[in-house]
Amino acid sequence: MEAFLPVLVLLAISLGLCVGIFGVSTLLNPRNLPPVATKLNPYECGVKPEGGARQPFHSQFYLIAVLFLLFDVEGVFFFPWALVYRESLASGGALLLAIAVYMGLLTLGLVYIFRKDCLEIM
Amino acid sequence: MTGLEWIILLSKLLVIYLTIVHVVPIMIWVERKGAALIQDRPGPNRVGPFGLLQPVADALKFLVKEDPIPNSVNRVLYAMGPFMTLVPASLIVAVLPVGDFFEVQGKSYFMQIADINVGLLYLLSISSLGIYGILFGGWASNNKYSLMGAMRSASQIISYEIPLGLAAVGAVTVYGTFSLREMALGQEGTFLAVLPRWGVFMQPIGFLVFFISAFAETNRLPFDLPETEGELVAGFHTEYGSMKFATYFMAEYMNMATISGLMTTLYFGGWHLPYLTDATLLGWLGGQRNLLAVLQFLIFFFQSCCLPAHFRLGALDGAAFPL
Using a CB-CB distance cutoff of 8 angstroms, which residues of chain B are in contact with residue A21? Predict the structure, then answer.
């Protein structure tokens, strides 16, 4: 765990930087400007905002996220394989065959997604 | 850890981290000046020689600007957004090896903030945390355009993370390690007698995939769909003003700097020059080369900024999966 100590120090430094930036900015900001109602409206191209922003919207974004999750989790299994790739080549190609089967399964899933037009955003 | 080790750790942290932070204004200047050069206009030329101090003036202006918070926002998430993108962008810096090692009182120290044995995985996972800041900002703004911009950003970034990770798998098979330092060490010398032993020659296709995904991850042209000014104002940071906006901006450029650093480490030999081994060069000359290589990459990022190419979003997300 000793190796992660510098990361923690870096985290502290970057948080400090953030706090510093906002502190200085808060100190230097102009205060007590006359309140203007339109300035505090959401900016939607100068048109008066109609209704709230938090309404249902296109579920394709959700689908993309779910597919990402699936493929990312599946992709993680490539990493340990890649780590021992050299040694496995030396001791025969059994691991190569295994990963080829796995990749074939992934490709099947990909083909299914394309056949279902899941990635089309209109 | 002894006192000396703490001092060395802190100085390493400050030097590497502040270098990345200070690359940001230089990048902005190069981008604006380069774009002006390509489009035959003067670009920034008022502040300092060749407009070099323009980013400094911009930063000062951001600091003293009024920071209006719209009425309808969710205040906690709205304030957290910029933090949530800047902190992960800073944390990635930790695993980039900027050189081999240096010696203080007979002990050698790696020129890297933290030599983690899972460096590549650390980098990929931390860099994806930046999405939370974007989504927080977009949702908390309570602005339809911001929300759509945030969703677009998020879907683009997560789509291109898969090809980015899979391209990195290719690099791992070549070097047989996750430690970025060992990867850079493995790229010294030549192979096939003529080519430098660089990742870009060992893994040309992997490099291409990585390169395209890196552009998409950092929202540079031709992948700047989340920003589509004509449709969405500016994307997720429309409602942000003053230093909060500048923080988002800074995080974006820091991500660019670190992803160029990663590309240098994986595919351009880290701190290694072609045909020259470390034994030939003196150890300290190496670190400068890495910075030079990073800078070369940044210039490349900006040149492509001027390519007037736009893709449809659907086409983009669809294109990510075959990659």
Answer: 243, 247
pLDDT of residue B234: 63
pLDDT in tens, B227-238: 655 556 666 767
What long-range pairs does B151-155 form, CB within 8 A, spacing at least 24? Answer: B151/A57, B151/A61, B152/B225, B152/B226, B152/B228, B152/B232, B152/B235, B152/B313, B153/B219, B153/B226, B153/B235, B153/B236, B154/A61, B154/A65, B155/A61, B155/A64, B155/A65, B155/B313, B155/B317
Average pLDDT, chain A: 76
Residue A109 lies in a domain: yes
Q: Can you give the residue range of the structural domain that contains A85?
A: 60-115
What residues in B contact A10, CB-CB < 8 Å? 13, 17, 90-91, 93-94, 113-114
Model confidence, pTM:
0.77
- Cα distance from B75 to chain A (closest Cα, Å)? 13
Question: What mean pLDDT, rounded, does chain B reach?
Answer: 71
What total of structural domains would you count in chain A?
1
| Residue B301 tokens, joined | 């990022």
Confidence of residue B318 (pLDDT cuts 50, 70, 90): very low
Instruction: Write out chain B residues lying below 8 Å of A107, CB-based.
Output: none
Rounded to an integer, the average pLDDT of B270-289 is: 54
Domain residue spans in chain B?
70-320
With CA atoms as reference, the chain A residue closest to B79 would be A22
Minimal CA separation from B63 to chain A, in Å: 5
Whether residue A64 and residue B239 make contact (CB cut-off 8 A), yes or no, is: no
Query: Is A83 close to B172, i.e. CB distance below 8 A?
Result: yes
Task: Note whether ipTM > 0.90 here.
Answer: no
